[in-house]
Design a protein that fits this description.
By secondary structure, the chain is mostly helical. Helices cover 76% and strands 0% of the residues.
């Protein structure tokens, strides 16, 4: 899976480099910053998918982690309800 992930990373980097896929007008530094921000957002969204996790699995894992860190019974009950609603 690392090979596919690396190929996607390289492709995103190449395509989102300034003046490759699209051009943003203005200062070259602002343009590079915006291209970098778009790259970061796309990588943030695609990385869990490439790792094999669906958004539901990520939410379930986060809820279970929160349950371990819950201190009061009220917090635990709320998190258990969330886990039940997600059908984890």
């Amino acid at each position: 899976m690392n090979l596919v992930k690396n190929i996607v990373l390289i492709a995103l980097f190449f395509l989102l480099s300034p003046n490759i896929l699209f051009r943003l007008p203005g200062n070259k530094y602002v343009s590079a910053l915006l291209h970098g921000a778009i790259f970061a957002v796309l990588w943030y969204v695609s990385n869990p998918i490439l790792e094999g996790f669906t958004p539901k699995q990520i939410k379930c894992a986060n809820a279970k982690k929160s349950l371990q860190n819950a201190k009061t019974d009220l917090q635990k009950n709320a998190i258990n309800k969330q886990i039940t609603d997600l059908k984890c």
